[in-house]
Design goal:
Belongs to the group II decarboxylase family. The chain has 245 residues and is an alpha+beta fold. It is built from six helices and ten strands. Helix content is 35%, strand content 18%.
């Protein structure tokens, strides 16, 4: 098995490139494979891709690294965030992955991985009984998912996705501000729509709202389906419950 080296993160959840540099220098005899997060699972942190590339090159790893950008949730939102660095194959990255069932809203779990042609050629193989070349990772895939993705992309278009991203970010800031105003500690990364706050003490409340928790924190991922009315309803109930916990 390939050896995995963990890199420290900041309190925001973003990669700590100072520690990343230290770990690189400790493993200078090996090439590096790096997973760059475009929205971490719990805190929605977006790693600084440009700084990661700069750190690799300044540490002597030029042309000796492979970067995968994990954009499962935020990969399709980041192009519409003004301050965000571009995730593009004009930079020395190897692949990008996004989910189709999260922000896009495909009714079944699915994902898309975009990579360079040389990597696809290395993976793909001729399948005699199909009379075609298979370039999928698992050897098969759901045929309905691409249709749903194609339909949604065509229906909403660039402007439609742009409006939905702006709505998500605006509502996320609204939720964070309302939580803080109610005396509840909350955090929102600058490029994210994931609001992190104190874990509710009532597990029934956690189950009712299907809150994802880790340790003493919980989060709300603000997606297009989450409107102000729903956030206000959640906030009212949270504040009422906290009064008796």
């Amino acid at each position: 098995r390939m050896e995995c080296v963990k890199v420290d993160t900041h309190i925001s959840g973003e990669i700590d490139c100072s520690d990343f540099e230290r770990k690189l220098m400790q493993n200078k005899d090996k090439p590096a494979i790096i997973n760059v997060n475009i929205g971490t699972t719990v805190k929605g942190a977006v790693d600084d891709l440009d700084l990661v590339i700069k750190t690799l090159e300044e540490s002597g790893f030029k042309d000796r690294f492979y970067i995968h950008c994990d954009g499962a949730l935020f990969g399709l939102m980041i192009p519409f965030v003004k301050k965000a660095a571009k995730v593009t194959f004009k930079k020395p990255i190897g692949s990008v992955s996004v989910s189709g069932h999260k922000f896009v809203g495909c009714p079944m779990p699915c994902g898309v991985q975009v990579t360079r042609l040389k990597h696809i050629n290395a993976l793909s193989s001729n399948v005699e009984y199909l009379a075609s070349r298979d370039a999928t990772i698992m050897g098969s895939r759901n045929g309905h998912a691409p249709i749903f993705l194609w339909y949604t992309l065509n229906q909403k278009g660039y402007r439609g996705f742009q409006k939905e991203v702006q709505k998500c970010l605006r509502n996320a800031h609204y939720l964070k501000d309302r939580l803080n105003a109610a005396g509840i500690g909350a955090m929102l990364n600058e490029l994210s729509s994931t609001v992190v706050f104190e874990r509710p003490k009532d597990e029934e409340f956690v189950r009712r709202w299907q809150l994802a928790c880790e340790g003493n924190i919980a989060h709300v991922v603000v997606m297009p389906s989450v409107n102000i009315d729903k956030l206000d309803y959640f906030l009212r109930e949270l504040v009422e419950k906290r009064a008796v916990w």
